[in-house]
Amino acid sequence: xxxxxxxxxxxxxxxxxxxxxxxxxxxxxxxxxxxxxxxxxxxxxxxxxxxxxxxxxxxxxxxxxxxxxxxxxxxxxxxxxxxxxxxxxxxxxxxxxxxxxxxxxxxxxxxxxxxxxxxxxx
Length: 122
Fold this sequence. Notes:
Helices cover about 0% and strands about 55% of the residues. The protein is an all-beta fold.
């Protein structure tokens, strides 16, 4: 697994919103021929989905990325609902504009809610 900062300085040619193992996924295609997949790797008693996209993917195409970062926020657990929640935010920008992706992960508290970002072969 790689960090999204691997996209810094790369120029995107295409971004596809797709599916991987029944969950939301985003495929990133770069001018240098590399491709990346952002997705949730299924785990029992857990799941994650793309909750919100703020911005326009077209703003990220054709210009080098000047921002590619990830932050997370864990949801609080209360006694009546022992489930775990994690929000993962990804921010991307070029000189044309910004896009923020919000992923929401949920589990019974014992399984991964993390989003994977991996280089793929095309």
